[in-house]
Amino acid sequence: MYLAKTVAISAALVASLGLAHADETLDAVKGKGFVQCGVSQGLPGFSNPDDQGDWTGLDVEFCRAMAAAIFNDADAVKFTPLSAKVRFTALTSGEIDVLARNTTWTMSRDSDFGEFVGVNYYDGQGFMVPTSLGVASALELDGAAVCTNTGTTTELNVADFFRANSMDYTVVAFEKADEVVAAYDAGRCDVYTTDRSGLAAQRSKLAKPDDHIVLPEIISKEPLGPLVRHGDSQWGDIARWTLNCMINAEEAGITSANVAEMNTSDDPNIKRILGSDGDLGSKIGLDNTFCANVITSVGNYGESYDRNVGPDTPLKLERGVNALWSDGGLMYAAPQR
Amino acid sequence: MTTITKLPNGGKVYAGDLPDKPAPIRTDGLVAWMRDNLFNGVFNSILSLSALALVLYVLPPVLGWLIFNANWVGGADACRVNPDGACWPFVSARWEQFLYGFYEKSERWRIDILLWMLAIGIVLMVWEKTPGRHLIAMFMLFVYPVLAFFMMYGIVAVNVYWIAVPLLLLGVLFATLAGGFFRVIGFLLMLGGVAMLWQVGSGAVQAIHPLGDRALPIVDTPQWGGFTLTLVIALSGIVASLPLGVLLALGRRSKMPIISLLSTVFIEFWRGIPLVAVLFMATIMFPLFLPAGVTFDQLLRAVIGVALFASAYMAEVVRGGLQAINKGQYEGAMALGLPYSKMMRLVVLPQALKVVIPGIVNTFIGLFKDTTLVLIIALFDLLGIVQASIADPNWSIQSVPYTGYAFVGISFWICCYSMARYSRYIEGKLHTGHKR
């Protein structure tokens, strides 16, 4: 009914009818029966179509988790693939309900475009070099030719990094990631720089992946997280606590495999998370068991991570800073109580 | 019989027919052809040799990569083992995605039917001996697009307004413009429309379910994609831009100053901005003008943008044709007492359009290729869906992006080259006096 509805709504607007109030997103979503989620047009491990044409990835699974939290059905979600340029317009214009498109949480974006609800992946810009270069640290890259994408923050970060360490460099920039990889592989530059998740994804496209190493330095902070429109705090809470639920569940050891038996656990923390005790879910307009539904159909954060970007996937990304705080990482969710 | 008389000074006089001599070896056969066409002169010989060298240099690696060294069977692992050739399993694994995009899997038969109808329709229209060719053309031009829209989008319930209002408009059109029998039909249509609106007004009927239980489920436009989407955008652009372009061209040459000015402004506005800017305006600026919470179908925005853009170009092509027609043709038509509409329809336009067929098809081909620009506004046409597929980490192999782009290139080349060949054929068929 998308087209008919939008045309009808546009027509209604011409007659200057009133608008839906901002804090009615949950009602609107329940009314149409699915969450409209903005994702990337294709970012390995975060959102990409699989062979069957279904969207998969870490960002995609966050959207599925929200659908599970609201409808107890991880498939009650529709994806709007968005380019980096149109993503915020799509959110503010109401085309999508939530944006999970590996978007870096920055102060200006948080104030201009929407409300970030948390971080589902801590990324940072890194460097990849051929082992034959004999370099062990990014500080030894004086005079290097650096391959990167044009017009991104990566380019600016490189400039900052090299200037701060008073090193010379030349930029070899391309529009698309595939071109950057091809140029790097052909030896047109010494270093390839982009977000570390991107380095991992592109590495397997090199002729000899094992001849390249990722340097230890991380030169920028890229906390990637989902965001919602300003002005609807209930909807923001739903997104925030869906994410927190996945992280808390991992911390409490609740997985999609053991959620049924965990339901009968006596641990008060687990009972609160799964909603067998208390009324936390109803405070944000959902079932008290919303978190149990999320874990049953999507899994906890660790499961989602391992399935999409973890060591057993082609991306082979170690947990690193994305491990739980109790394991030395940065994933620290506010408690559900 | 030949008689030969010898002259005293040693000459000979032949009378009658001489037997034919064999043709000199260098005027026919392969050698002669090459001599005439490739090596007639030093400069051309150098050109031919360099071209041959270039072909020999480029072709073997290209063919080797595309065909001989390519991976044809197996999965991603086979391609990972042999990185020196194209990875065709990638295309065959995602063939359906490339064709249908994210269209609902259980509903893809609807697209199959439409594509077959399109293919058969085109073949029947192109083949000249088809009985009732005009009817088929009419069907493909006027009925098929509507049918295609409803089959792709789906029909569940039809709001009565959507029937009543067009009925009313059509009735008004007939009743005011046509005469006799059609005017009566026009009044009947108007009556029907009013009656329907009356029903809605009194709350008796809101929507009808034309297909009952066998309704076609709605498949929203964001799910449309792949080659189907390329066809949707290109064909609606093509079908809309030709009549619009003709109208604009006539408008620009009109002696009525306001119409002429408006047409000129429209044409120059759309020709003056790049298509990318049009698409960005349609997707980024346009929603900002609408109040929050209101959306307007993304695909519709893109199609309208592409169609208006192409119609401006089409208008200039047609205007070129109109200017090529001798003034005498206009004056002759007027001397016969033909009104403007008949003069254009019967005398000027058939000649003008014939002259500019290459230009028209050129615009069509350009439009067809321009549809790939919609990927920047996150519509997944053929190129867009291939690019999204490349991002799958399971297919993260060096040869996969190249294979994907090669596949897109070959697909587009087949479509565009067919259009070009057909235009050449039509030109040849219609060259009645304008060939130079």
Descriptive notes:
The complex is a heterodimer of chains A (337) and B (436). In chain A, 37% of the residues lie in helices and 16% in strands. Chain A is built from 14 helices and 14 strands. Chain A has helices at residues 2-14, 25-32, 58-71, 87-92, 107-112, 153-164, 177-185, 196-203, 233-251, 259-262, 268-274, 280-283, 290-297, 301-308, and strands at 35-40, 48-49, 55-56, 77-82, 98-99, 115-116, 121-123, 125-130, 144-149, 169-174, 191-195, 212-214, 222-224, 227-228. In chain A, strand 2 and strand 3 form a beta hairpin. In chain A, helix 3 packs across helix 9 (233-251), helix 3 packs across helix 13 and helix 9 (233-251) packs across helix 13. Chain A is globular. Chain B is extended. Among the domains of chain B are: 3-68, no CATH class; 98-103 and 221-436, Orthogonal Bundle (MetI-like fold). At the A-B interface, helix 1, strand 2, strand 4 and helix 4 of A face helix 5, helix 12 and helix 17 of B.
What distinguishing features does this structure have?
heterodimer, A: 337 residues, alpha/beta, D-Maltodextrin-Binding Protein, domain 2, 2 domains, five-stranded mixed beta sheet, 14 helices, 37% helix, globular, B: 436 residues, mainly alpha, MetI-like fold, two-stranded antiparallel sheet, two-stranded antiparallel ribbon, 18 helices, 4 strands, 68% helix, 3% strand, extended
Provide the residue-averaged pLDDT of chain A.
Answer: 88
Q: Count the E strands of chain B.
A: 4
CATH-derived architecture of the largest domain in chain A: 3-Layer(aba) Sandwich
The proportion of strand residues of chain A reads 15-25%
**Remind me, CATH topology of the domain at 98-103 and 221-436 in chain B?**
MetI-like fold
Summarize the structure.
The complex is a heterodimer of chains A (337) and B (436). By secondary structure, chain A is an alpha/beta fold.
Topology summary:
The complex is a heterodimer of chains A (337) and B (436).
Chain A: H1 2-14, H2 25-32, E1 35-40, E2 48-49, E3 55-56, H3 58-71, E4 77-82, H4 87-92, E5 98-99, H5 107-112, E6 115-116, E7 121-123, E8 125-130, E9 144-149, H6 153-164, E10 169-174, H7 177-185, E11 191-195, H8 196-203, E12 212-214, E13 222-224, E14 227-228, H9 233-251, H10 259-262, H11 268-274, H12 280-283, H13 290-297, H14 301-308
Parallel strand pairs in A: 1-4, 1-5, 9-10, 9-11
Antiparallel strand pairs in A: 2-3, 5-14, 6-14, 7-13, 8-11, 8-12
Helix pairs in contact in A: 3-9, 3-13, 9-13
Chain B: E1 3-6, E2 12-15, H1 29-37, H2 42-68, H3 76-81, H4 88-93, H5 95-100, H6 108-126, H7 133-153, E3 158-159, H8 160-177, H9 181-201, E4 207-208, H10 226-252, H11 257-272, H12 275-289, H13 298-324, H14 327-335, H15 340-355, H16 357-370, H17 382-390, H18 399-430
Antiparallel strand pairs in B: 1-2, 3-4
Helix pairs in contact in B: 6-7, 8-9, 10-11, 10-13, 10-16, 10-17, 11-13, 12-13, 13-15, 13-16, 14-15, 16-18, 17-18
